[in-house]
Specification:
The protein is of the alpha+beta class and about 160 residues long. It has helices at about 5-40, 45-50, 135-145, 150-160; strands spanning about 40-45, 60-65, 70-75, 80-85, 90-95, 110-115, 120-130. It has 2 domains: about 1-40; about 40-160, OB fold (Dihydrolipoamide Acetyltransferase, E2P) (Beta Barrel), CATH 2.40.50. Helices cover about 40% and strands about 25% of the residues. It is a single-pass type II membrane protein.
């Protein structure tokens, strides 16, 4: 076998390997771009307050407790507003639709949607706890981080005794 023929085979393999690596990198980049568009990040009201203003097209989830006395039904009869709190910061939420049966003030909630230019969270979906022992993990973690978890557990224990 001649030396030039061996070099050309090595060069061919190098080109094919380079092409395969380039194709894999392109496929990975496309996959990550598609994945990034479908990811919805979770924020507590405090984390949201610490962030720079969100773009209106960025989907996110917020979670916390529905503040007592904050639930209001607007004149159109379909839209409600309420405040989600983690006991340090509050976020005003607007939601058009039917709230879950278990939604009520003083309970844990997770809302998915986007921030509007006025700084109000516009929810497209609202999730409420489904029994007396469950609170969404993100909400519980945010309350634990803020130091208010024990207060919530004490209130729940009191409610169960009554």
């Amino acid at each position: 076998m001649s030396l030039s023929r061996a070099k050309s085979r090595k060069r061919q393999r190098l080109y094919l390997a380079s092409l395969a690596v380039l194709a894999a990198a392109g496929a990975a980049a496309l996959g990550l771009t598609a994945f990034r568009d479908s990811v919805v990040f979770f924020f507590s009201p405090t984390e949201l307050a610490e962030q720079s203003p969100m773009s209106p097209d960025r989907r996110l989830r917020i979670g916390g407790l529905v503040e007592e006395g904050s639930l209001q039904k607007l004149a159109d009869g379909k839209t409600v507003t309420f405040t989600v709190t983690d006991m340090q910061h509050d976020v005003q939420v607007a939601y058009t639709g039917i709230l879950p049966d278990l939604f009520r003030e003083g309970q844990g909630v997770v809302a998915e949607g986007h921030m509007n230019p006025k700084g109000q969270f516009v929810a497209s979906e609202v999730l409420a706890k489904h029994d007396e022992n469950y609170m969404p993990r993100e909400v519980a973690d945010a309350l634990k981080k803020s130091g208010h978890w024990e207060e919530i557990e004490a209130q729940n224990a009191k409610n169960m005794r009554n």
